[in-house]
Amino acid sequence: MDGPHTSGPSTGAAFQPLVDALLVGDHKLLAAVAQRLIEQGCSREQVVTDGLEHAMGLLDDKCTVESFNLLEIMLVGRAVSSVVRVLYPDGYAPTQGRATFVIATLEGDVHDLGKNIVRMVLAGKGFRVVDLGRDCPVDDLVGAAQREGAVAVLVSGLISPVVSQVRKLRPALRACGLAHVPVVAGGAALKQLRPEALDVDYVAENAFDGAHYLERHVSGAPAA
Ligand code: B12
């Protein structure tokens, strides 16, 4: 059900009611619209990428360093969370899974909506995801990777200053004997950079692209 190939509506117009409800921050209406799209045959991937991500991109000018409308953005954030609950009603905390990942937004970055979606997508695929939350020190994330036996470390980054934190991950993993554990990055600020520039193994375009990469890694298939 997560794949992009479904019989449901796929045009931008089909997602306009979702975009409209999101932009006014009406979380109840938004959850109802998302539910209807799912019932019409849309995949979760379409709702996230064509709906949520597209709409959030339209909020760019309300969330810059110069101009910042906190209340409006927070209402939209709450609305995004309501859609995530519609898409993943079973929650996200399997204690056993096909493999374990650790995920966080690193120190200095408080954005977590995208990270939460990644966690849900992976949990929906049967993986165990240990979420260290946002504003997380590099050492805490690496410590969790060691403690939990993680097979990959995932990092979400939305603001440019967090790039320097991401570059500290690989040396910190190496120092703990975890040089073999891959690092996967995503989020608006990180996906503008190539893996070499971040010193990570893969930069995901979106949650589903990241999940495909991780599926291949866990199954031992060569990276595409
Ligand atoms: C919502 C928002 C906020 C909310 C965050 C609420 C929350 N709980 O997350 C609040 C109001 C708190 C906020 C604060 C700020 N924000 Co803001 N914010 C946004 C906004 C509008 C949307 C981000 C979002 O949630 N998108 C929706 C999610 C679903 O998308 P996503 O995160 O990209 O995630 C998807 C994929 O990228 C992927 N993904 C994400 N992470 C990962 C990780 C892995 C491993 C994988 C596989 C995939 C993956 O999966 C998701 C689903 O596909 C963006 C604009 C934008 N276009 O991104 C600005 C934006 C990120 N913010 C920005 C700024 C400047 C700020 C502030 C500094 C503003 C200020 N004046 O203080 C503060 C930052 C404070 C801090 N220290 O962190 C800038 C950053 C610019 C830059 N390059 O540095 C942006 C780009 C706006 C802009 N155009 O200037 N913000």
From TrEMBL:
Residues 98-224 form the B12-binding domain. Transmembrane segments: none annotated. One of its GO terms (molecular function) is metal ion binding. Coiled coil: none annotated. One of its GO terms (cellular component) is cytosol. PROSITE patterns: B12_BINDING. This is Putative cobalamin binding protein. It comes from Thauera phenylacetica B4P.
